[in-house]
Amino acid sequence: MNETKFETAFYCIRCMSDSLHTVVYVNDILHKVTCQTCGRESVITPDLPKEVYIRYFDRILSKPSRITKEFKADLSHFLSSLPYRVLSKPYRTYREFKGIFKYVHKNDPPKEE
Ligand SMILES: [Zn+2]
User: Fold this and answer.
1) Which neighbouring-strand residues pair with 9?
2) CA of 34 to the centre of ligand 1 (A)
3) Domains identified in the chain, total number
């Protein structure tokens, strides 16, 4: 999980003027923009885990077509023949997922029993 913040001036529709905004990127995905004057928050990518998931599979499926063909032909053989280097990647991505999930839900109110 890699959160990047920076500040820039945008036009805010609530302030009706240009004001300083905090821009938040999570794993290079534009997540949200917050007006520092009135606090108006625009969430650009509300479903971060889904976005990371989509990008992850895009990365896998853009591997050489031989792998993609094997993947389609025989999933279990494909999985068992993967080199360790590739196998270690889903685990890292799972950890990344968990981090992002926590990040997304960190502001949720505590559950009432
Ligand atoms: Zn504003």
Assistant:
1) 20
2) 8
3) 2
